[in-house]
Design brief:
By secondary structure, the chain is an alpha/beta fold. 36% of the residues lie in helices and 27% in strands. It contains eleven helices and 13 strands. It has a four-stranded parallel sheet, sandwiched between helices. Strands 8-13-11-12 form a four-stranded mixed sheet, sandwiched between helices. Helix 2 packs across helix 3 and helix 4 packs antiparallel against helix 5. The radius of gyration is 18 Å and the shape is globular. The two termini are 28 Å apart. The relative contact order is 0.16.
């Protein structure tokens, strides 16, 4: 059987797992006088401790991807299923494409139309298909067919980091700066971060996210779920408690902090509920 590797980027919020055939190329976190590779050279804790330095992010280089592709080939793989962060949120996807085009391995390239754990959940779904023995030719339609079933609801305490990084417009950001209105952020059909609903107060925001998640997943036969937080794991305690039944019933559940790259945009206080309906 021909071996299929999954190639993704660190915006997926998952770590490299060579045993599972998942290979991750890190984005960069940049400060005034230094650049560090996400996951490898910098932690979320360091980003949050230096958030006042206004760190910014940048895409991996073509060489970064080419080196990873060579490493994949050395490991005995002959095909690559590449899943990248939304091209409307990062130049990483186009860099990945150029590296794959320059290589000599057969590949499929998919724009996840997402970022952070929804992208990661799509990677994990792709891995399950490979484990089931799905043919390489079928993987593209199967994985792309699930993009519409990805969802994220996120709340951050301060939108200035998303606005500064260009991931959210200033007009939408103003919503969060008045009358304690908290935008519930999501990723739209164009793969961009948008305001899903404006809710007054933190508790109402958490209640809304939980109820909306429960409504969408009602009747789902199988689904993946993930919760992400920033500096403090307790930021997700309330929503985790409200979604405990769904968490227990998930075919796959992931929980953890956003990566350093994602933390540059979210800031230290964030909670995100992400899920993928399987059937």
């Amino acid at each position: 059987m021909r071996k299929i590797a999954i190639l993704t980027d660190s915006a997926s919020n998952i770590k490299e797992n060579i045993d599972q055939g998942i290979f991750v190329v890190p984005l960069y976190v940049n400060f005034q006088n230094e650049s560090k590779k996400d996951l490898l050279e910098i932690s979320p804790a360091e980003v949050f401790s230096r958030i006042d330095e206004n760190p910014y992010t940048s895409a991996p280089s073509i060489d970064d991807f080419c080196d990873k592709i060579s490493f994949i080939k050395e490991k005995g793989y002959d095909k690559i299923l590449a899943i990248g962060v939304s091209k409307n949120l990062s130049g990483t996807f186009n860099t990945m494409r150029l590296a794959l085009e320059a290589g000599d391995m057969e590949y499929i390239l998919i724009d996840s139309m997402s970022i952070t754990m929804p992208e990661g959940l799509l990677v994990m779904y792709a891995r399950s298909l490979i484990e089931e023995g799905k043919s390489f030719d079928d993987l593209q339609s199967l994985v792309e067919g699930k993009i519409k079933d990805l969802k994220m609801f996120a709340s951050v305490s301060d939108l200035k980091h998303l606005i500064r990084g260009g991931r959210l417009s200033k007009v939408e950001g103003l919503i969060g700066g008045s009358l304690r209105i908290n935008p519930v952020l999501t990723i739209d059909n164009n793969g961009e971060i948008k305001n899903y609903k404006s809710v007054v107060g933190y508790k109402r925001t958490i209640n809304f996210i939980a109820k909306e998640t429960q409504k969408i997943l009602e009747g789902a036969g199988s689904y993946y779920m993930a919760l992400a937080y920033g500096e403090d794991p307790s930021d997700i305690d309330d929503v985790k408690d409200k979604l405990s039944g769904l968490i227990d019933g998930a075919a796959l559940y992931l929980e953890g902090p956003v990566t350093a790259v994602l933390g540059c945009h979210s800031g230290p206080s964030v909670n995100a509920v992400c899920f993928l309906k399987i059937d």
